[in-house]
Specification:
The structure holds two protein chains of two kinds. By secondary structure, chain A is mostly helical. Chain A contains ten helices and four strands, in the order E-H-E-E-E-H-H-H-H-H-H-H-H-H. A four-stranded mixed β-sheet of chain A has the order 2-1-3-4, with helices on one face. In chain A, helix 3 (about 90-115) packs parallel to helix 7 and helix 6 (about 155-180) runs parallel beside helix 8. Chain B has helices at about 60-70, 75-85, 105-115, 115-120, 125-140, 250, 290-295, 425-430, 465-470, 495-500; strands at about 25, 95-100, 145-150, 160-170, 175-185, 190-200, 205-215, 220-225, 235-245, 255-265, 270-285, 300-310, 325-335, 345-355, 365-375, 420, 425, 445, 450-460, 475-485, 505-515, 520-530, 540-545. Chain B is mainly β. In chain B, the strands form three sheets. In chain B, strands 5-6-7-8-9-10-11-12-13-14-15-19-20-21-22-23 form a 16-stranded antiparallel β-sheet. The chains are: A mainly alpha, B mainly beta. The interface of A and B includes residues 46, 66, 134 and 254 of A. Chain B: It is a multi-pass membrane protein. Chain B: Its main location: mitochondrion. Chain B: Keywords: Membrane, Plastid, Plastid outer membrane, Transmembrane, Transmembrane beta strand.
């Protein structure tokens, strides 16, 4: 069997990102930060899998759901470890902040992605290769699962949302304070915390989410935004740290995804201009306008139908009278 | 109808002659020239009689002649009828078909089965078609009793017949079946239970619900409707909804879950067309799937149209001694506007031929089968075919029996032929297991896109009488097969020469124990040629084939 080197199986990419899945992106960024040569390949038929991303290294396979995630797998396989050699206090900080990112921020992102009206984004991330109707069925199933995971139902939606946003704001605040003006979060060198935070921020900046409270929160912390922009060109751009294996064409299912080369797609340019921000008011207005127009059309149709019948009836009656 | 006196030659008319009726009643027994017992009362028209211009009988003359006629002798009359029937076709027209005794069965159901009877033009044809129709009606399983009576037609229309069908519907429309069956491909036993409702809606249909459970490997829940002679067509309509879980973890590291339904038309004359819509989900609970299998996991939607043509002229499926059988099956998947459906085309051909040897009830059986599956669409050579639809060879099915495509190769393990891919070791277990390196690497079989197999089998009775009575006999065989992937990444370039060179061959002999439910074989197999990746074993192997 040909030696494929390190292969990372991800969900497909979109919007200038090599992978559009918020869970797979941190693993990608980590490997890029570590400068390890790897081949990204795409698993497009498993939207509801909880084991992605998957790392195949020789004859060993590691899953994103393993202990420590892909970072843990890489550490145990002795491929790379960005967190080694840290002093104890730094390690403690690292663990604490990583916990905040992986719980508060990731939950808030799940909420914005699934429970706000972002179906097109969800479809593009998870369901772009599935035909109708199974994409609808799986979408419904996953939505239910996210609701369960976040403990949200129709009654407590408002308060749970507020709670999630409060925690996310606190997390951004904490990260911003920790980062200050440094290049990296911990001890001046890239660590797994950088990978986690960058993965989150890249997704937030690139995905065309509507009405994203998270985005607004993030924009309040300039240093985080600047930090992400600085790292973006290095990580998602054309940097080739070590020998890059020739790009392997993965089994190509139909559907849109970014190129399968490990260089990632060209630059951080979005395909369209800054996404239009629509406030709640706008949405309500559009909904009302839609209903208004539907009502108008229905009224016109009804008039035509019933008015038409009256005319015919008169005609028949006249004829009947004449015949009799 | 010609009006002329008859002397037993030329065309004859069988008509109503005054009060005498001509009646024949039969209960599904085949009619032949010697039949006499089935005929209760037969009266023959006189050999000489005058007929009008428009063919009416002159009744008075006939009556007189009848009363004088001492021929109320049933056997003699029967013989006369048989003679007449075997001599010449007796032209007749069916005037009316009456159906009696139906309570909830719709009359259209019976009328559909009686189409040929209505169109009969001679007496012989009428009798034959009546027998067949009777068998078909009984075959619906809906009636307890079914009697077809052929009567003379109305007096004013000579040369006609009335057919009366009397049925009695079953009181108990339910029937159930529970059994334990062996599934040779996965080498497990499954518990099957079926419940059938016949004629629930009065259309002669059979509704069945089936549950099938095999410990840890297969479980299936399905329900179907079989509607015979759908709307006047010669075909039955079959629709089926299925939820099926099939476990291939041991061989290929995946488990598939299918939810789907199919709709088909089956023609008794060997044609079958069906449409299938299935949601397939492949997952890997072992977390050890190889690189190739991991790319197959996930959700897929199959929307396919399949046409099967079958001819089976063998004298027996379980132990054929003469005749031939041929089947061709074509399937096109990807029916629908969505380009994300599974897209492939699959063709399978199989031919069997049996030649009797003349001594010791022996027979020589030949068979060959081939199949190919290819994806279609843009860039199809780099797509790989779905693993659930590929061809696999090897296992515990016997060479004879029903035609199942190129899948049987004795001596090789289940899915034991063809390319393999090494399984990956999950990182969390790899570290803790110190002996992992010494154990041989586990592999996943990937199957092939092109498969060809053939066999020769000689069978004959053993010289012991008691074994002969039970049907136990011996057989010797030689079989060969090969399969190879055609598309997808990682495929090696292949050539016809390479394909022929890598054929797997095995031979052997054994004993066959045919029973009502299945055919059991105990064979000693000797592998003549195999490839290094195959899993095959020389030695004793047990094969099981069920007649379904």
């Amino acid at each position: 069997m040909a030696d494929r080197g390190l292969v990372l199986l991800l969900r497909s990419g979109a919007w200038g990102l090599p992978t559009a899945c918020p869970v797979c992106l941190p693993a990608y960024v980590y490997l890029k930060l570590a400068g390890v040569a790897f081949t990204p390949q795409y698993a497009t038929f498993q939207p509801d899998s909880d084991v992605l991303p998957v790392l195949e290294y020789g004859d060993v396979v590691g899953y994103g759901s393993d202990s420590g995630g892909i970072v843990g797998v890489l550490r145990r396989e002795k491929v790379c470890d960005l967190d080694e050699g840290l002093p104890e206090s730094a390690k403690a900080d690292l663990n604490a902040y990583t916990a905040v990112v992986n719980s508060w921020l990731s939950d808030a992102l799940l909420h914005d992605l699934w429970l706000k009206e972002n179906e097109s984004v969800v479809t593009q991330v998870y369901l772009s290769s599935l035909p109708w109707p199974i994409n609808k069925a799986i979408d419904w199933k996953q939505r239910r699962a996210v609701q369960k995971h976040l403990g949200i139902n129709t009654e407590n939606l408002a308060e749970r949302s507020a709670e999630l946003y409060r925690k996310a704001a606190a997390a951004y605040e904490a990260l911003s304070v920790r980062l200050q003006d440094q290049d990296f979060f911990i001890a001046g060198k890239p660590t797994s915390l950088d990978a986690a935070v960058l993965g989150h921020i890249f997704f937030l900046q690139h995905a065309p989410l509507e009405l994203s409270v998270l985005k607004e929160e993030l924009s309040k912390h300039r240093n985080l935004v600047v930090y992400a922009e600085k790292m973006e060109s290095k990580l998602l751009g054309d940097s080739a740290p070590t020998v890059v294996p020739p790009p392997k064409s993965s089994s190509p299912p139909p559907g849109s995804y970014a190129s399968s080369s490990s260089k990632g797609t060209a630059g951080p340019n979005n395909t369209k201009a800054t996404p239009k921000k629509r406030t709640e008011k706008d949405k309500l207005f559009r909904k009302r306008a839609k209903y208004f127009i539907i009502a108008q059309v229905a009224a016109v149709l009804l008039y035509v139908v019933f008015a038409g019948i009256e005319v015919e009836d008169d005609g028949l009656e006249e004829d009947g009278g004449v015949d009799d | 109808m010609g009006a002329r006196p008859d002397e037993g030659g030329g065309e004859e008319q069988v008509g109503d002659i005054g009060k005498d009726e001509w009646r024949e009643e039969e209960d599904g027994r085949p009619l032949d020239a010697e039949k006499g017992a089935g005929v209760e009362q037969v009266d023959m028209e006189k050999e000489q009689r005058d007929l009008d211009e428009d063919g009416d009988d002159i009744i008075d003359d006939d009556d007189e002649e009848d009363e004088e006629d001492p021929l109320w002798d049933a056997p003699k009359l029967a013989k006369k009828l048989s003679d007449k029937l075997s001599r010449e076709p007796i032209k007749i027209r069916v005037h009316d078909v009456q159906i009696r005794g139906t309570v909830k069965t719709k009359e259209s159901v019976l009328e559909a089965q009686l189409q040929e009877v209505k169109r009969a033009e001679t007496m012989q044809e009428l009798l034959q078609e009546s027998v067949k129709a009777n068998a078909r009606l009984r075959g619906l399983g809906v009636f307890e009793k079914c009697t077809i009576t052929i009567d003379a037609g109305p007096e004013e229309l000579p040369g006609t017949a009335n057919v009366t069908v009397e049925v009695e519907e079953t009181k108990r429309p339910f029937s159930g079946d529970v059994g334990v069956f062996s599934k040779p491909e996965t080498k497990t036993w499954t518990l099957d239970g079926t419940v059938k409702w016949r004629n629930l809606l009065g259309y002669g249909e059979t509704i069945d619900a089936t549950g099938c459970y095999g410990w840890d490997t297969t479980s299936e829940l399905s329900a179907g409707v079989n509607y015979p002679r759908f709307h006047g067509l010669q075909s039955s309509l079959i629709s089926r909804a299925t939820i099926l879980t099939q476990d291939w973890q041991k061989y290929s590291s995946y488990r598939e879950r299918l939810k789907g339904f199919s709709l088909g038309l089956i023609n008794e004359d060997n044609h079958e067309v069906s449409y299938n819509l299935t949601w397939r989900e492949l997952e890997d609970p072992t977390r050890q799937a190889s690189h190739a299998i991991r790319r197959q996991l996930g959700h897929h939607l199959l929307s396919s149209l399949k046409y099967t043509f079958k001819v089976d002229e063998r004298d027996s499926a379980m132990r054929p001694t003469r005749g031939y059988a041929f089947t061709s099956s074509s399937q096109l998947a990807g029916i629908g506007p969505d380009e994300k459906l599974l897209r492939f085309a699959r063709q399978e051909l199989e031919l069997r031929y049996a030649v009797p040897l003349g001594f010791l009830n022996g027979a020589l059986n030949f068979g060959c089968a081939g199949g190919i599956i290819m994806p279609w669409g843009p860039n199809f050579l780099s797509k790989s075919t779905p693993i659930s639809d590929r061809y696999f060879m090897g296992g515990h099915t016997s060479l004879l029996g029903n035609l199942k495509g190129p899948s049987a190769l004795l001596g090789f393990r289940t899915r034991g032929v063809g390319p393999n891919a090494a399984r990956l070791i999950p990182q969390t277990t790899g570290q803790t297991d110190a002996s992992a390196e010494e154990r041989p690497r586990m592999v996943d079989t990937l199957g092939g896109d092109l498969a060809v197999s053939g066999f020769v089998d000689v069978s004959m009775d053993l010289p012991f009488r008691i074994l002969r009575e039970w049907g136990i006999h011996m057989h010797g065989f030689a079989c060969a097969g090969n399969l190879v992937p055609l598309t997808g990444e990682d495929r090696a370039s292949w050539s016809w020469k390479g394909f022929l060179d890598t054929f797997r061959v095995s031979c052997g002999a054994g004993l066959v124990f045919p029973t009502k439910l299945f055919r059991l074989e105990v064979n000693y197999c000797y592998i003549l040629r195999k490839q290094e990746q195959d899993r095959a074993k020389r030695g004793i192997q047990v094969s099981l084939t069920s007649p379904h």
